[in-house]
Amino acid sequence: AFFWLVSLLLASLIWFVSVQLSDRENAKLQYGLLVFGAAVSVLLQEAFRFAYFKLLKKADEGLAMISEDGRSPISLRQMAYVSGLSFGIISGAFSFVNVLADSVGPGTVGIHGDSPYYFITSAFLTMALVLLHTFWGVIFFDACERRRYWCLGLVVASHLLASGLVSL
């Protein structure tokens, strides 16, 4: 979860600086910067997922060295699952907190003619992204372990696609 938060912090800084340096009156440019920020966020998340894989691989080697039988007590699949789940849970918590913050302000969504399904839809979308992060983590770790670079590309491309679809 920490690695995901650091990637989000870096993406936010890049987006903030790019918005500050751009023409704020140009709506088309601002929309492009929003799309750019989302893409940078996904790419940084995947870069940090790779860094986390490398860190866990080193830790796995250390655990194997100090164990009695020479094997690590935690398998790579377990680490991949936990890593993906932690990325997903922190991502879901972060995104759903924004939805909950919207629910307490003036002009609450779902009242006065808006869709009454906004909150349940947001909850299902958050749940789907948590599951996607879990799957991406497992596939990513397996692809790194077996050196299947096309699978890494598939994870990054599907992550970019999912983020783009959420923006719609």
Automatic annotation (TrEMBL):
InterPro entries in UniProt: Aph-1
Membrane topology: Multi-pass membrane protein
UniProt superkingdom: Eukaryota
Keywords (A to Z) from UniProt: Membrane, Notch signaling pathway, Signal, Transmembrane, Transmembrane helix
GO BP terms: Notch signaling pathway; protein processing
Main location: membrane
One Pfam family, short name: Aph-1
Signal peptide residues on this chain, from the entry's feature table: 1-19
Membrane-traversing stretches: 31-48, 79-97, 117-141
CC annotations in GO: gamma-secretase complex
Segments forming a coiled coil: none
Compartment(s): Membrane
Subunit composition and interactions: Component of the gamma-secretase complex.
Job of this protein: Potential subunit of the gamma-secretase complex, an endoprotease complex that catalyzes the intramembrane cleavage of integral proteins such as Notch receptors.
Protein family (similarity comment): Belongs to the APH-1 family.
Protein name: Gamma-secretase subunit APH-1
Lineage start: Eukaryota, Metazoa, Chordata, Craniata, Vertebrata
